[in-house]
């Protein structure tokens, strides 16, 4: 029962006052927080005690969740919201006082001695790392109905992104454990941040596939909660238009990963276990693991507390620009400026043309691919201070120029790459730039929008994402000495792409360039119309001439040599229109499918030495 003090406190809100008898002491505390923070409107339509009581309690369940899942609780959320909304109303530039310039970072070119060294160093470090995939986003721009990590990374083998990520981590784990001489086997932890939109489907995908070979104990799912929507500049929480006992909520952004990791207790556990690195990555970059070993090597060599992976960026491309920001007071930081903010920031600070390419044909600002490598110790220390809270922003769509009303409710958001914003100037914050063909090909845009991307800019579609895998693998094999025929140009779903030989391999076949080079020898050639899928570990390519389709699957104890002339009718590519709903969604968004006319397929399930020739 409410005490007299409480009664007095609540008497100004009669609709709530008359319901106090329903509430537990904890719920009364929450009600107080709401009233103290200007939220009495939430109770305006509440009927007297005895009516809708179950719904009223459900309302407080939601309030309790919103309060506990945000660092500092709802009071902090509302306070920050008021401040940010006031700034937004007066048009305050979030970069006020800062001037942008082009930062300098590490440049890595695939195949150079330095690159090969960095890769080897990265493999050594891999067993000291934990991997964190942020996969709570809906992928609204892609519009795919399922979860994005379940999409095939490529359709030659049909391996989905999640499987590829897990197999890559396992391959790194094995290689790294082998190098370390202390004999202990370490399992690399793999964390997936989900949300209500993705959680159960991510868990189902893992369970239906036995975690793709990873130990279930190695995988942790952390679910992010949505945050309360805001109706006006006073940060009044928005009620669901269809349910007066429910607050409208929206995603808070990938920045939640830091507070979730902090509150999970995992960071402490990892430190105790001797881990040193945390690697963050996003849901659909099929090339990412080409870049991981070398960039981890850079982090270790340069002793970076923060290392962001970057690629050359085309002006106006929807990827953030890594920027050096120098404040009038002298302090400076190297930080991502998000793609929608780069152009206005540049225009406001002495770059009248804004976000444009320079003489290289690229933006002078490296493009952030949001793959961050953090050193665990300093990371944990910092989170201890901040509780994992990340600098937030608000992006309300106003009804008119008075900026007093919103078109629809808004909310605070945060981004994981804003983590360095609170770091002291002594922190070693760097970035590593790699080739686009090697490191970045996300699947973010639906076919219609991709076809409208300005010529020369990347499409970031399912079509370009898959073609990028074949191009990267072809280029890597070319650099290893294989004559892979040049690509042809083709228009698929309205996008002109280069179609290279459809070459794929399992991560355990070759994680780093020096390993791949050991698997290839003699005079090898692969024609453009060919398909080659290597699914075994000990598969060696020697004096192979491939003109057709070749699929090889073998157990680890089978050593397989591929050689001689292998020629067959192969797999042809057929165009598919993305509007053709008779074709499964994950295929039609690519604009093509394979017609498997003829192939040489070998499956080796017994130990021994084998030779595959036609
Ligand atoms: O609330 C969220 C939102 C997003 N995410 C995840 O965060 C990742 C990135 O989300 P989006 O694809 O929407 O990100 P964007 O394309 O808008 O920009 C992001 O990637 C490209 C970089 O250059 C940008 O700097 C970065 O913000 C995805 O893996 C998504 O699942 C969450 O886990 N939770
Ligand atoms: Mg987004």
Overall geometry: globular
Number-wise, the strands total 33
Number of helices: 18
Task: Give the radius of gyration.
Answer: 27 Å
Report how far the terminal alpha carbons are from each other.
84 Å
What is the overall pLDDT average? 95
> What bound compounds does this protein have?
uridine-5'-diphosphate-xylopyranose, magnesium ion
Strand arrangement, major sheet: 2-19-12-15-11-3-4-5
Model regions low in confidence, pLDDT < 50 over at least 5 residues: none
Percentage of helical residues? 25-40%
Major β-sheet profile: 8 strands, mixed
> What would you call the structural class?
alpha/beta
Strand proportion, as a percent range, falls in: 25-35%
Keywords: Nucleotidyltransferase, Transferase
Catalytic activity: a monosaccharide 1-phosphate + UTP + H(+) = a UDP-monosaccharide + diphosphate
EC number: 2.7.7.64
Cofactor: Mn(2+); Mg(2+)
Question: Which features characterize this protein?
Answer:
alpha/beta; UDP-N-acetylglucosamine diphosphorylase activity; eight-stranded mixed β-sheet; UTP-monosaccharide-1-phosphate uridylyltransferase; single chain; 614 residues; EC 2.7.7.64; binds magnesium ion; 18 helices; 27% strand; 30% helix; UTP-monosaccharide-1-phosphate uridylyltransferase activity; six-stranded parallel β-sheet; binds uridine-5'-diphosphate-xylopyranose; globular
């Amino acid at each position: 029962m409410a005490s007299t003090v409480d009664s007095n406190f609540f008497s100004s809100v009669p609709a709530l006052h008359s319901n106090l008898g329903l509430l537990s002491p904890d719920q009364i505390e929450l009600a107080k927080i709401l009233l103290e923070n200007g939220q009495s409107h939430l109770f305006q339509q509440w009927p007297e005690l005895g009516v809708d009581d179950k719904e009223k309690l459900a309302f407080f369940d939601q309030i309790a969740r919103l309060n506990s899942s945000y660092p500092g609780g709802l009071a902090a959320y509302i306070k920050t919201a008021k401040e940010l909304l006031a700034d937004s109303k007066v048009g305050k530039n979030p970069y006020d006082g800062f001037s942008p310039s082009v930062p300098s970072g590490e440049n890595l070119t695939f195949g150079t001695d330095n690159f090969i060294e960095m890769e080897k160093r990265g493999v050594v470090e891999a067993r000291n790392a934990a991997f964190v995939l942020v996969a709570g986003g809906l992928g609204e721009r892609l519009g795919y109905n399922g979860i994005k990590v379940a999409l095939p990374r490529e359709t030659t083998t049909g391996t989905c992104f999640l499987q590829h990520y897990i197999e890559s981590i396992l391959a790194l784990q094995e290689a790294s454990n082998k190098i370390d001489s202390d004999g202990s086997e370490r399992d690399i932890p793999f964390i997936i941040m989900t949300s209500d939109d993705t959680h159960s489907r991510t868990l189902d995908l893992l369970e239906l596939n036995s975690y793709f070979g990873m130990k279930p104990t190695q995988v942790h799912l952390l679910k992010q909660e949505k945050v309360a929507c805001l109706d006006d500049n006073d940060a009044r929480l928005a009620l669901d238009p269809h349910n007066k006992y429910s607050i409208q909520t929206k995603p808070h952004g990938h920045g939640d990963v830091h507070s979730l990791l902090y509150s999970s207790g995992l960071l402490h556990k990892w430190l105790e276990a001797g881990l040193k690195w945390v690697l963050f990555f996003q849901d659909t970059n099929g090339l990412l693991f080409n870049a991981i070993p070398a960039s981890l090597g850079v982090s270790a060599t340069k002793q970076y507390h923060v290392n962001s992976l970057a690629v050359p960026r085309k002006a106006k491309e929807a990827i953030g620009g890594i920027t050096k920001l120098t404040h009038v007071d002298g302090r400076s930081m190297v930080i991502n400026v998000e793609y929608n903010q780069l152009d206005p920031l540049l225009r406001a600070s002495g770059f009248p043309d804004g976000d444009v390419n320079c003489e290289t044909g690229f933006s002078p600002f490296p493009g952030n691919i949001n793959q961050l490598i953090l050193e665990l110790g300093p990371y944990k220390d910092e989170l201890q201070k901040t509780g994992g809270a990340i600098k937030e922003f608000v992006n309300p769509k106003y009804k008119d120029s008075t900026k007093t009303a919103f078109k629809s409710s808004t909310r605070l958001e945060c981004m994981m790459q804003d983590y360095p914003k609170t770091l002291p100037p002594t922190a070693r914050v760097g970035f590593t730039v790699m080739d686009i063909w090697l490191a970045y090909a996300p699947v973010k845009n639906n076919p219609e929008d991709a076809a409208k991307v300005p010529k020369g800019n990347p499409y970031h579609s399912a079509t370009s994402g898959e073609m990028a895998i074949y191009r990267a693998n072809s280029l890597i094999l070319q650099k290893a000495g294989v004559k892979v025929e040049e690509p042809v140009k083709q228009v698929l779903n309205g996008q002109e792409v280069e179609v290279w030989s459809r070459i794929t391999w399992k991560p355990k076949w070759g994680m780093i360039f020096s390993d791949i080079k050991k698997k290839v020898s003699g005079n090898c050639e692969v024609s453009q119309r060919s398909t080659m899928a290597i699914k075994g570990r000990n598969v060696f390519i020697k004096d192979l001439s491939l003109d057709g389709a070749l699929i090889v699957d073998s157990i680890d104890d089978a050593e397989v040599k591929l050689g001689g002339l292998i020629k067959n009718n192969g797999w042809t590519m057929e165009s598919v229109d993305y509007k053709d709903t008779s074709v499964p969604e994950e295929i039609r968004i690519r604009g093509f499918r394979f017609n498997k006319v003829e192939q040489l397929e070998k499956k080796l399930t017994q130990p021994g030495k084998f030779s595959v020739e036609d």
